[in-house]
Specification:
- With about 110 residues, the chain is an alpha+beta fold.
- It has two helices and six strands.
- The strands form two sheets. Strands 2-3-1-6 form a four-stranded antiparallel beta sheet. A two-stranded antiparallel sheet has the order 4-5.
- A hairpin with a 6-residue loop joins strand 2 and strand 3.
- About 15% of the residues are buried.
């Protein structure tokens, strides 16, 4: 058995959740915040048998695509203002960061 931890952008959260339910997989959703853009993320915890791993990974990949987005940079707080760029910058957001962990025991009460 494996525990899949998938950190995804909030915009992809409902689409992934619906796809997992449709494929009959259970998941726990946790609100999280990214460190780089300080934007909302959702972390999914998905427990699955080893033989279902590839299907779950495919569902995540199909529903969490990366895309480009313009973001306004945060002004420096007392730092060196010489390197501050005052105009929006295009960055890649979305997609999924996925961790797969082995599970020694699973109980449901």
């Amino acid at each position: 058995m494996k525990l899949i931890m998938a950190v995804i952008q909030d915009k992809d959260s409902n689409r992934l959740s619906d796809a997992l339910v449709k494929a009959d997989y259970r998941a726990t959703k946790l609100a999280s915040t990214g460190g780089f853009l300080k934007a909302g993320n959702t972390t999914f915890l998905i427990g699955t048998e080893d033989e279902n791993m590839e299907e779950v990974m495919s569902i995540i990949k199909e529903n969490c695509q990366s895309r480009d987005q313009l973001v306004a940079p945060i002004s420096p707080m007392g730092g060196n203002a010489d390197s501050y760029v005052p105009y929006p910058v295009e960055v890649q957001v979305g997609g999924a960061t996925v961790f797969v962990l082995p599970v020694e025991q699973f109980e449901q009460f």
